[in-house]
Amino acid sequence: EVQNTSEMLRAHAIGATLIGVNSRNPSTLDVSLDISVEVARAAPEDVLLVSANGLRMKKQLRGLRTLGYKGFLIEDTLMGGDSPEGILRDLL
């Protein structure tokens, strides 16, 4: 798991090819998908990216998929509603 581009490049340099990108700032707990966008733009082609945190809408998932993301951690979104199945259906 990485928080920024430099961490992603360091992880890749030591052999990581599956990299989770956490969009939550650990100091402030603020969430910004700009982190996932920035990391994707710098990621080597052999890296499989997974975005975590702040994913609440279908258009966010589509946008990140366009940038190369292959997976998404959406547990906060699923756990925050009355119908996880309905939320997931809406996201897909």
Structure report:
By secondary structure, the chain is α/β, with parallel strands linked by helices. Helix content is 43%, strand content 16%. The chain has 5 helices and 3 strands; from the N terminus they run H-E-H-E-H-E-H-H. Helix 3 links the parallel strand 2 and strand 3. Helix 1 packs across helix 2. The radius of gyration is 13 Å and the shape is globular. The mean pLDDT is 89.
**What's the tally of helices?**
5
Order of helices and strands: HEHEHEHH
Q: How are the strands of the biggest sheet laid out side by side?
A: 1-2-3
Strand content: 15-25%
Label the overall shape: globular
Distance between the termini: 24 Å
List segments where confidence is low: pLDDT < 50 over at least 5 consecutive residues.
none
Sheet/helix structural class: alpha/beta
Biggest sheet features:
3 strands, parallel
User: Compute the gyration radius: what is it?
Assistant: 13 Å
Element layout with pairings:
Layout: H1 5-13, E1 18-22, H2 34-42, E2 48-52, H3 58-66, E3 69-73, H4 75-79, H5 84-91
Parallel strand pairs: 1-2, 2-3
In short:
The protein contains five helices and three strands. With 92 residues, it is an alpha/beta fold. The radius of gyration is 13 Å and the shape is globular.
Features:
92 residues, 3 strands, globular, 43% helix, alpha/beta, 3-stranded parallel β-sheet, single chain
